[in-house]
Amino acid sequence: MFNPPGRSQSINFLAFLSAACLLPCGIASAAPSITLSKKTGPPTSRILVSGRGFAPNASVDIYFDTKEEAVATANSTGAFSQIAIPAPASALTGDHWVSAVERSGDGATQARFDVQRNWRQFHRLNMQRMNPFENVLNVNNVGRLRLKWSFDTGFEVASSPAVANGVVYIASLDGSVYALNAKTGAKLWSHDTDRYVDSDPAVANGVVYVGCDDAVCSLNARTGKLLWRYGAGGHVPSPTVANGVVYVGSAGYKAYALDAITGALLWSYQTGGEFYSSPAVANGAVYVGSDGGNVYALDASTGALLWSYTTGGAVSSSPAVANGAVYVGSDDGNLYALDASTGAKVWSFTTGGDVYSSPAVANGVVYIGAVDFNVYALNASTGAKLWSHNTGGYVTSSPALANGVVYVGSDDHYVYALNASNGALLWSYATGFYVESSPAVANGVVYVASYDHSVYAFGLPDSDGAKQDAASKRPDPKTLRPDLSVKPSKLVATR
C-alpha cells in the first residue's frame, strides 16, 4: 500500500520516540532475572546474587525465603552484581528461595537454593569427623530417632557411608558399591568391583572414589560407571579427596597422590610399613599412619617427608587435624596428640585396649573409641579424661559429632547416641551384628551399616518433619515486605 511521504516520516519518527523512551522512562529492557553464585550448599553458605532487567537505579530487596538479607541498587541499565547474602544457620534441608523484589514497581524474580549438609567422605570437616551444620537432631530430640529405612546388601558391610546431594554411597565386603536414595533407601545403582572392599567411599565433583582391594576405583556418581582404576600394589583403605587430588595409602608400602579427574600419579611415598589408615589433609600436608607404628606428615604437593613420629604399635586409626594438632590412635592402646608442624608429642592418653577407631574433634574435645569397650572424651589441649561410656563390645567404629551429640557403633551390635558434654546415653539401636561402620550424620538423618548385611537410616518421626517441609515453601513475592533496617549493599559494577 502506498503511503504519502509525510505520513511515512511521521510513523518512523513516532517509532524512534517509543524506542528512545524505554530507558529514560524507566522501562526495563527485559524481564527481571537473578543468578546465584552457587545453587546448593550448607546453612551459613555465602551466596552472591546478581540481577538484571530491573528498573534503572531501582532499590531491589533480596530475601532468603521470607527474611530480607540485603538491598541492592540497580545501575543505569537495571543491573546489579554479586550482592552477598547468607543461607541462614537455621535453614533446613531442601529447596529454599532467593527472591529479588523492586521496592517500588512490579519487578520481581526468584531462584532456587538447595540446602544440603553433605557428609562426602570419612573425614567430614577439616578431617575432624563432625558436621557443624546439623540443626535438626540435638540432645533434646535424638531420643526419638526411628528407623526410616534399611537396605540389605546381601553381604557384610564394614564400610562407612558417604552422603552427597540426596544419595548415600556405601560398599560391601563382596566388592559391590551402592548408591541409595537418601530418603527412601531405594537402590539407584550398584557397581561390582570384583574385589574385596572395606573402604569408605569419598564423593567429589560428581565422582565416587573407593579402594577396591588393591586399586583405587573412580566411578560416576550418577550412574556407577567406572571412570578409571589405579593399581596400588596392595590393599587400599579409604581415600581422601582434597583440592582435586585423591590421597590414599596401600598395603604395598606406599602412599599415593592421584589426579582426581584422570587417575594419573602425581607422587608416591614409600615406607617400611603398610598403610591401613585414611589420610587427613590439612594446611598443605597429608597425615597418615602405617602398620610400622609411624605417623607421617607429607607435603601435599610433592609427597616430601615433613616429619614422622613412632608410636608403640601399628597405626590403623585415621588422624584428625584440629587447632594445630594431629590426633591419632595406635595399637599400643594410646591416643596421641602431635604438633601438626613438627610431629612433637603434645600428650598421650592410655586406654585399656587397642585404638583402631579414628578420633572426632569438636569444641576443644577429642572423642575416640577403644577395644576396651569404651568411648572416651578427652580435653584436646591436655589429654585429660572428661568422661567415658562403656558399651558391650569393642569400639572400632569412629565417632561422629553433630550438634552436641556423639554417634558411634560397637561390636555389641548397637549404634549409640551419647551426650557430647557428659557421655550420657541418649539413644541406641540394636542391629543384627557387629557395627564397625562409622556413622555419618547429614540432613537430620543418621546413616550407618552393620555386619548384618544392612545399611540403616535413622531419623525423627514424620510428625517432627512437618516444620521442615513447611519451611521450604516458595514465597509469593507480593507478600514480602521490606525490612527498613537493612542498609543498601555496595554496588559492584557490571558490564
The proportion of strand residues reads: 35-45%
* Count of structural domains: 2
Strand order across the largest sheet: 2-8-7-4-5
The CATH topology name of the largest domain reads: Methylamine Dehydrogenase, Chain H
Q: State the low-pLDDT regions, or none.
A: 1-28
- CATH class identity of the largest domain: Mainly Beta
Mean pLDDT: 90
Counting DSSP E segments of at least 2 residues, the number of strands comes to 41
Please identify the structural class as seen in this structure: mainly beta
- Number of H/I helices: 2
Task: Report the CATH superfamily of the largest domain.
Answer: YVTN repeat-like/Quinoprotein amine dehydrogenase
The separation of the N and C termini measures: 44 Å
The CATH architecture assignment of the largest domain turns out to be 7 Propeller
Q: Assign a percent range to the helix content.
A: under 10%
Shape: globular
Give the biggest sheet.
Answer: 5 strands, mixed
The radius of gyration is 27 Å
How would you characterize the overall build of this protein?
The protein is mainly beta. A hairpin with a 2-residue loop joins strand 35 (400-402) and strand 36. The strands form ten sheets. The chain has a five-stranded mixed sheet. Helices cover 4% and strands 43% of the residues. Residues 1-28 have low confidence and may be disordered.
